[in-house]
Amino acid sequence: MKLPDATTLLLERNDDVLHITLNRPESRNAMNLIMLEELRALLAAAGKDRSLRAIVLRGAGGHFCAGGDIKDMATARRDDQAGQARINRSFGRLLEEAAAQPQVLISVLEGAVLGGGLGLASVSDIGICLANCRFGLPETSLGVIPAQIAPFVVRRIGLTHTRRLALTAARFDGIEALHLGLVHFSEPDVPALEQRLASSIGQVLRCAPQANRRTKALLLASSEQPLEDVLDQAADLFAEAVTGKEAAEGTLAFVQKRKPGWAP
């Protein structure tokens, strides 16, 4: 599938893995409206590609994302409140869509991971950071609020920690991010970061593609729907999976002591 063109993103596809790099290094990859819309369009197109199994999201120039573009925020003040709300809500839709992305979403975090950047990190399936990253929710120190970001951070690290971080605009490093559960791995240097990324991709590719898609959908539903509804849905998904081609190949490969066809 052909992916849409982008002026603020760098794209590289390696077989079943799509690498997306936020590319506004002059602003530490702060997200403007163009980047927001380009990223939403790209994720939507990628979600329809059933041959794509993982998406790696990172930033250019030694930073992940310093949050929203302050210049865009200043321009938005000229709009009425309804216009400002529409702009703000569009970022929340990006986070919703990224959280529900059918592929495994891996965030690779360096340098600044602030505001909206922290929001993006919060919706990834696998988070890998450098220990010297600088995380934070600085919105209240600018006189605004982390409106679309806060619910996703609460889901990631819990209400108690989010309250402290949002109400103090405190900065913290990758080691604390690991302790909070915001990321899964904190690495001391770039070579270790890249090695962890390669290892994580390898682990993802050992899993059956459609089984991963169904499992991710089930896990997301489990946090939003009543338990009985989730279990009913899970039974249907299991029946669909166990009678499908992947289960047949997976069990045969196990018996024959070989890798299944989808594994590298």
From TrEMBL:
Gene3D superfamilies: 2-enoyl-CoA Hydratase, Chain A, domain 1, Lyase 2-enoyl-coa Hydratase, Chain A, domain 2
UniProt-listed InterPro entries: ClpP/crotonase-like_dom_sf, Enoyl-CoA_hyd/isom_CS, Enoyl-CoA_hydra/iso, Enoyl-CoA_hydra_C, Enoyl-CoA_Hydratase/Isomerase
Pfam families in UniProt: ECH_1 (PF00378)
PROSITE patterns, alphabetized: ENOYL_COA_HYDRATASE
SUPFAM superfamilies: ClpP/crotonase (SSF52096)
UniProt family annotation: Belongs to the enoyl-CoA hydratase/isomerase family.
Protein name: Isohexenylglutaconyl-CoA hydratase
Native source organism of the sequence: Halopseudomonas salina
